[in-house]
Amino acid sequence: MGFIPEEAKSLPPPAVANRNSVWLAGVGWCSAMLHNAINHRPPLKSGVHRQFLMATIGWFIGYHLTKYENYTYARLDRDMNEYIRLHPEEFAAKEKKTFAEIVEPFHPVR
After folding, report:
1. pTM for the full model?
2. Please, are residues 57 and 21 in contact by the beta-carbon 8 Å criterion?
3. Domain span at residue 32?
4. How many domains does the chain have?
């Protein structure tokens, strides 16, 4: 695919069955069934090859959409970690407090 840059090829590939692939395959299959229903054909039994084709196209688009999504999040993480590395004074470690120091003392009212 042309819309994913070369540096994204170093990332591991997403799983074949991911949420975008499954979702868009279902959308493709339902759109083929809707097309059958609009044309007054039996929605489930006619045009099975078209249903399979639309589901496959949806799966393909979902897979590459997930690849692009993973690249985008990896790029944002890289930029954020680089900013944190260059500006450590803005991300100083806070002192650790125990839970007892955070919670106010409990005084029951009777």
Report:
1. 0.78
2. no
3. 15-88
4. 1
